[in-house]
Automatic annotation (TrEMBL):
Pfam family for this entry, one: Ion_trans
InterPro entries per record: Ion_trans_dom (IPR005821), VGCC_Ca_Na (IPR043203), Volt_channel_dom_sf (IPR027359)
GO cellular component term, pick one: voltage-gated sodium channel complex
Phylogenetic lineage: Bacteria, Pseudomonadati, Pseudomonadota, Gammaproteobacteria, Alteromonadales
Subcellular location: Membrane
Gene3D superfamilies in the cross-refs: 1.10.287.70, Voltage-gated potassium channels. Chain C
Species the sequence originates in: Planctobacterium marinum
Residue span, Ion transport domain: 16-232
GO molecular function terms listed in the Swiss-Prot or TrEMBL record: voltage-gated sodium channel activity
The protein, known as: Ion transport domain-containing protein
UniProt entry tagged with the keyword Membrane: yes
Length: 272
């Protein structure tokens, strides 16, 4: 059997939907196994979970090997971030859990194996990529939010310090109190306490909630959705190019060329 035939076998296995679903099932089972290990289990169950963990690690090693061998150009395999991520997780998972100084690291890596599901589900990849690409724009939103937080914390610490120093003692504590208000964690208790001394202090809280919980949240959602639409458009474009499907621009260019040819033919007929 030639090397090309063997590679085609691995390629068919990698592209098989049943194989992908089985890998996803093993990833989910691996996450459940990590959760089960956080409980105090009888010795027989500890032995079972130990062998299951090594079975899962071995399966992932075989699965990543199949994906690597199915690649036509082996260099391209490591040009994909998700392939590097999956390979790193699998290799670090080979660290023995028991009787090792690196046992804690090995256990933590086994927790992150559930993230391998992202590399198998395109929608999750688009979502994560969009979040990462939206970070620069979100950074400016976070900066503006911090400015609003800081102004309100300074005002709250100045006005409400004598009412409750535990909540408004200094600007750092005031920031924590405002975060509590923004997350709606018993914020009405804080408001009613200050309203006993300043009846109009509700304006302070309502305006703060409007700027942070509503306005900024919608801004963040808008930025993420916009980036997701751009990423989705890029994916569709790449799929069309891979399938050699013409885009609207290509069709428009071809239609223009046909119209030009028709005009030339009509002109020639008119001259003749």
């Amino acid at each position: 059997m030639q090397i090309r035939e063997v590679q085609n076998i691995f390629l068919r296995i990698r592209s098989n939907k049943i194989f992908e679903l089985f890998v996803i099932s093993v990833i989910i089972f691996s996450a459940l196994l990590v959760g089960a290990k956080t409980y105090k289990l009888p010795d027989p169950f500890n032995q079972i979970t130990f062998f299951l963990d090594w079975f899962i690690t071995g399966f992932f090693l075989v699965e990543i090997s199949i994906r690597f061998l199915a690649e036509t150009k082996k260099r391209n395999f490591f040009k994909d971030f998700w392939n590097i991520f999956d390979t790193t997780i699998v290799l670090i998972s080979l660290i023995p859990i028991e009787n090792s100084e690196a046992a804690v690291i090995a256990r933590l890596v086994r927790v992150f194996r559930v993230l391998r599901m992202v590399s198998f589900i395109p929608e999750l990849r688009i979502l994560l990529t969009s979040l990462i690409k939206a970070l620069p724009q979100l950074g400016y939103v976070m900066l503006l939010m911090f400015i609003i937080f800081y102004i309100y914390a300074a005002v709250g610490s100045t006005l409400f310090y004598n009412i409750n120093p535990e909540l408004w003692g200094d600007i750092a504590i005031s920031l924590l109190t405002l975060f509590r208000v923004m997350t709606f964690e018993d914020w009405t208790d804080v408001m009613y306490e200050t309203m006993e001394y300043y009846p109009l202090s509700w304006i302070f809280y309502i305006s703060f909630i409007f700027f942070t919980a509503f306005a900024f949240l919608n801004m963040v959602i808008g930025i993420v959705v916009n980036v997701m639409e751009q990423e989705h458009a890029k994916v569709l474009k790449a799929e069309r190019e891979a399938n050699h499907e013409p885009t609207i621009k290509d069709l428009d260019a071809k239609l223009t060329a046909v119209q030009t040819q028709l005009e030339q033919i009509l002109q020639q007929q008119g001259k003749s």
